[in-house]
Write a structure and sequence with these properties.
heterodimer; A: alpha/beta; Rossmann fold; 2 domains; six-stranded mixed β-sheet; four-stranded antiparallel β-sheet; 10 strands; 38% helix; 21% strand; B: mainly alpha; three-stranded mixed β-sheet; two-stranded antiparallel sheet; 18 helices; 5 strands; 64% helix
Chain lengths: 291, 436
């Protein structure tokens, strides 16, 4: 039942792989993910227009922009939900444009959802194990007859799930149904589930929505802990500017489907076009007049 | 039968629930095996020797043919449970697989294909080796029927992959009509008689017992004669047991998890690396395989393939069994199938006779069967929506409101407060409701 290919089947499930995950990565591909000149049209509407975007390896970058800027649409192109009208998306140097979502996920791109989308009537452990689907190999026959390989694989998968739940700090919810977890724990479970894909890039869609300032503060450390210990790059879509400024190494600003600014948090903070996009032109004039 | 007695190998879902799960499954399996053996001995050895005053009511209220039919329904319901209960794909045309299985059985175990003058005889129970037609061993036909149905399952599944909910139900409904219609009207297709139309294909060869007859002392052939019915009961039980075992095993593995994930949230499952096409098609295929096995068994049960027996109402009937028994729970589905099938084939008739005997009336109770099942369904939905023996998780969703749902009533903005409740591992809805 498993898709062909070596994937990461060789790496024991329970252990975080050391070093670069994809040994087949072409030399010179320093970017975990890049999008080149991506365009998507819905009818006559250009939702994302000629966006080029790079996530360097092991970085934390953010995508911001006012409502309707095309952030989520762009996210959906990256994860394979939409096929771009033109342009190219590469993950670890491999072209993933137009591939189905499950293939892209398997190749190392994981995401969480703006509105939590867990498998409600499955336990936390099962939720995480679902995401290991592409790394497990037991076929129907092996499952029915309980082959030793299948049993070992299941045991390892369960251990890895426990490890991930522990990593995000909800080890004790292992056998609880996802729907019974608190809001904050559900967000954590989504991260654990995404990590089960052993991604090289993790996309977090508004991860601090519904968190209070104190929790958002803790979140920053959490993001860095994920990056450092799980050895991956993080891309955030976020509305909370305090969080964005604190957590991001680089920020890309989208407005009306186009990139209007890109740079370090300090660059973005002072960028006129960004302030304009968020507050309107009057605000910049006012600011200038006042200064 | 060994299949049923070794639930130990089922991967434990969790260390904490392992003990309880295993013991409950072991208890279920062991008691069912005991029941089957006891029933077999009773029908085979004891019943024929009982006085008429005792044997009469037993063979009226629980004739062995009726029980055999119940077992076939159990197999069917288990198959539909894979598609509807596990993967959450509403299939209203399940009878199609039943029909295909039956006809495959009839083609391969009768003289219908008489153009083959000397016939093909491989391990069949036929004594005259020169009969025309194809005569294969029942056991081989089971495998072939299952394979053909799996193929049709995939074929039928493929165009419905992009459909959800109502649309999926309507398309499957169509297939459930097309296939029986083909068998009903297939006697003059391009001048060829492919299915013998409404007359159906009869008779089929009895079940051959092969080596088993030497080892276990079974009769050489098991057909329609009263004496062979208990043996048929035994075979159908084994078949049902295999279906139970497979259902449970797949549910506990990687594939079962991905089915459940699809049922819960298709898009999220896809984003987490579950290949939707493969997972859905395998659900259809496994469901169809069970249907095929049931179909071949049904051909043996009635001694042929009769186009009339594959009506739309049968699809619904099997679906009612799954829903009433408890969607997703194998034991519930078995119970639902057995009880409803029995009520339909025997219970109503006998109850009607008794009723009429008491009151001197002439009410044709069995003709009200769907009225009664409909009422039963309505009552169930009102008072016990989760089914007779619900799956643990179904019980959850119907009995307890989702926690976040409750909390969002209290506060949209301050959803972060929800995490304050972390210390309580089992949060009941009440404190959540009281939250600001």
């Amino acid at each position: 039942m498993t898709a062909p290919g070596d994937k990461s089947g060789a790496v024991p499930l329970g252990k975080a792989p050391a070093g670069p995950r994809h040994t087949s990565t072409p030399a010179g591909a320093e970017d975990a993910l890049r999008a080149d000149n991506v365009v998507i049209r819905f009818g006559g509407l250009v939702a994302v227009n000629d966006v080029s975007f790079v996530i360097p390896k092991l970085s934390v970058v953010s995508l911001i922009g006012p409502n309707g800027a095309g952030k989520t649409t762009f996210f959906n192109i990256l994860t394979g939900l939409y096929r771009p009208t033109s342009g190219r998306v590469t993950l670890d140097g491999r072209d993933v444009t137009g591939r189905p979502p499950h293939r892209i996920a398997e190749m190392g791109l994981a995401r969480t959802f703006q509105n939590i989308r867990l498998f409600n009537l499955m336990t936390a452990e099962e939720n995480v194990m679902v995401a290991m689907h592409s790394h497990l190999q037991a076929g129907i026959v092996g499952t029915i007859f309980g082959s030793p390989r299948k049993r070992r694989e299941e045991r390892e998968a369960r251990e890895f799930a426990a490890e991930l739940l522990d990593f995000v700090g909800i080890a004790k919810t292992r056998y609880e149904y996802a729907r019974n977890l608190s809001y904050g724990d559900q967000r954590r479970l989504e991260v654990a589930r995404a990590l089960a894909l052993r991604p090289s890039v993790l996309l977090l869609d508004e991860p601090t929505a519904g968190m209070n300032p104190q929790e958002s503060g803790v979140f920053t450390d959490f993001v860095y802990r994920i990056r450092d210990q799980r050895d991956l790059s993080v891309l955030l879509i976020e509305h909370d500017m305090t969080v964005v400024m604190r957590v991001s190494e680089r920020i890309t600003v989208l407005d009306r489907g186009e990139v209007i600014a890109e740079g370090s948090p300090d660059d973005i903070r002072t960028n006129e076009r960004v302030v304009e996009a968020y507050l309107g032109k009057a605000a910049t004039d006012q600011a200038r007049g006042g200064a | 039968m060994t299949a049923l007695t070794s639930p130990v190998a089922k991967p434990p879902r969790s260390a904490r629930t392992r003990q309880r799960r295993l013991s409950s499954q072991a208890v279920w399996s062991l008691s069912l095996v005991t029941l089957v053996i006891a029933a077999f001995i009773f029908y085979n050895q004891i019943l024929p020797n009982l006085a008429d005053s005792v044997a009469g009511p037993v063979s009226r209220w629980a004739p062995i043919t009726a029980i055999n039919e119940c077992l076939i329904y159990v197999i069917m319901a288990l198959g539909l449970n894979v598609v509807v209960g596990y993967a959450g794909l509403l299939d209203l045309g399940y009878v199609a697989f039943w029909a295909i299985g039956s006809y495959v059985g009839a083609y391969l175990m009768s003289d219908f294909i008489f153009q083959l003058k000397d016939g093909i005889h491989i391990g069949s129970s036929t004594t005259v080796r020169t009969l025309p037609g194809i005569h294969l061993s029942f056991w081989a036909v089971l495998a072939i029927g299952a394979a053909v149905c799996a193929l049709f399952g995939i074929l039928i599944g493929f165009p419905t992959l992009r459909l959800r909910g109502d649309y999926l139900a309507i398309v499957t409904l169509g297939f459930g009509e097309i296939i029986p219609q083909f068998f009903t009207n297939g006697d003059r297709i391009g001048g060829l008689n492919l299915t013998n139309g409404t007359r159906g294909i009869t008779p089929v060869d009895p079940i051959n017992t092969g080596y088993l007859s030497n080892i276990l002392g079974l009769p050489r052939t098991v057909g329609l004669s009263p004496a062979s019915l208990p043996y048929k009961f035994l075979f159908f039980s084994v078949l049902a047991a295999i279906c139970v075992f497979v259902s449970l095993r797949i549910r506990g593995g990687r594939l079962g998890r991905s089915w459940l994930a699809i049922r819960e949230d298709e898009l999220a499952a896809n984003m987490m690396g579950v290949p939707l096409v493969k997972a859905k098609l395998s659900a259809y295929a496994v469901g169809a395989i069970f249907g095929g096995l049931g179909g071949v068994a049904y051909a043996e049960h009635v001694g042929g393939a009769l186009a009339d027996s594959f009506k739309y109402s049968n699809s619904i009937f099997v679906l009612i069994m799954v829903v009433l028994g408890g969607m997703g729970n194998v034991w519930g589905v078995i119970t639902g199938a057995f009880v409803l099938a029995w009520i339909n084939n025997t219970g109503l008739q006998e109850f009607g006779n008794t009723f009429n005997g008491w009151f001197g009336t002439h009410v044709e109770i069995p003709s009200y069967n769907f009225l009664i099942f409909g009422t039963l369904l309505v009552l169930m939905m009102l008072f016990r929506r989760e089914g007779l023996l619900p799956e643990r998780r179904t019980q959850q969703i119907l009995r307890e409101p989702a926690r976040t749902e409750m909390e969002s009533v209290g506060s949209d903005v301050e959803a972060g407060q929800a995490s304050e409740g972390d210390e309580e591992p089992e949060q009941s809805p009440e404190p959540a409701r009281a939250a600001p």
